[in-house]
Design brief:
It contains eight helices and five strands; from the N terminus they run H-H-H-H-E-H-E-H-E-H-E-H-E. With 223 residues, it is an alpha/beta fold. The protein has one domain: TIM Barrel. A five-stranded parallel sheet has the order 1-2-3-4-5. Helix 4 crosses helix 5, helix 5 packs across helix 6 and helix 7 runs parallel beside helix 8. The radius of gyration is 17 Å and the shape is globular.
Length: 223
């Protein structure tokens, strides 16, 4: 088993040298697919890592078979605020199920991303979540995901530059994996907390992320 894992890792080229030099295809709207599979309104998607692992494997396998180079683990909303009792189990299952989907698809050249979304709380002073606590929350997820074998950290759907900073610092301080991040802006090109595309890009570059972008706060045309 150990020799097989070594061989599989050799099949996978380092990600950082490929960024900005090749087109790499990511997965798509996993939430809508999970809903089609039976995810109920208000049901937390990450619970399916334990309740319906076969469906999560199928979701990942489908994306790998379609040609995706990067597929997210089902961990977008996983943090200790939502899962105070079984966060490690939820996160590590999400990563391992995506890895199993990759194995079944025969795509050992592709990457599994630890997917990290917002905490769901506004950071102080606009909200009640202290910055240091946000870093702690993200750090837990990063440690569990890296331990489970994730190839990179994808921080996504961030609408607050302060929270994005907390997530990036957590990733940088708790693993040596590539860190990718996407932000969401309104039709004026502003974050929820007022930052511009230019200011967000400057901050993220300063923090040393490996790639940055925009994701689905708006439709394709507006983006």
């Amino acid at each position: 088993m150990e020799n097989q894992q070594i061989r599989q890792n050799m099949d996978r080229r380092p990600l950082r040298p490929r960024l900005g030099r090749e087109r790499l295809y990511c997965d798509g709207g996993s939430g809508t697919i999970l809903q089609a599979m039976g995810l109920a309104g208000g049901e937390l998607p990450e619970t399916w890592n334990l309740k319906h692992p076969d469906r999560i494997i199928s979701l990942a396998r489908g994306y790998f078979e379609a040609g995706c180079d990067i597929v997210n683990a089902n961990t977008f909303g996983a943090n200790a605020l939502k899962y105070p009792d079984n966060l490690k189990e939820i996160v590590q299952a999400g990563v391992q199920l995506a890895m199993e989907g990759r194995r079944q698809a025969g795509r050992e050249d592709a990457y599994v991303a630890l997917d990290i979304g917002p905490t769901g709380r506004l950071l102080a002073p606009m909200g009640d979540l202290p910055f240091d606590r946000a870093v702690e929350l993200f750090s837990e997820v990063v440690r569990y995901g890296a331990e489970a074998g994730a190839d990179l950290v994808l921080i996504e759907t961030m609408s607050d530059s302060y929270e994005a900073k907390a997530a990036v610092l957590a990733a940088k301080e708790n693993c040596d994996l590539p860190v990718l991040i996407t932000m969401i802006f309104d039709e004026r090109g502003k974050l929820l907390t007022g930052g511009s595309i230019e200011s967000a890009a400057a901050m993220l570059e300063g923090l040393g992320v490996d790639a940055m972008g925009i994701n689905c706060g708006l439709g394709p045309k507006q983006m």
